[in-house]
Amino acid sequence: MKWALLLCALGLFLHCEAKQLSRCELVRELRRNGFPENKMRDWVCLVEKESSRRTDIVSRPNGDGSRDYGLFQINDRYWCSSTSQPGKDCNVTCKQLLSDNISKSAACAKKIYQRHGFDAWYGWKNNCRSKPLPDISSCKK
């Protein structure tokens, strides 16, 4: 019985690490992390299509064996280190991209955007480019 309680408590602790943001919570977090207002609807669309606004998502392996991590589904082939040491182009561990504190994920996503634009994300290319973007008008500034 004690083991069952311990496992249940551990499950609750691990579950607390994950978060699914509402659309307006996402907008607030993006604003807090310096995302430009004129691209906000694109970023919201990207996150909704890539991770369903969840911070804890790790993709199945891609064709090349790499995986995508977190809110922005950032790939470990180029951007984050799958070891315990920060590294690759964003100088972070992939585990850091799974945090409810999205500052490291946001900084990395902005770096990717600076180099490649939204075309770096298939979720945006396939679902947001030249299509209606999410309505964020009810999300207070």
From TrEMBL:
Catalytic activity, reaction form: Hydrolysis of (1->4)-beta-linkages between N-acetylmuramic acid and N-acetyl-D-glucosamine residues in a peptidoglycan and between N-acetyl-D-glucosamine residues in chitodextrins
A GO molecular-function descriptor: lysozyme activity
Signal sequence residues: 1-18
Start and end residues of each Glycosyl hydrolases family 22 (GH22) domain: 90-108
GO biological process per UniProt: defense response to bacterium; killing of cells of another organism
InterPro entries for the chain: Glyco_hydro_22, Glyco_hydro_22_CS
Sequence similarity: Belongs to the glycosyl hydrolase 22 family.
Protein name (Swiss-Prot/TrEMBL): Lysozyme
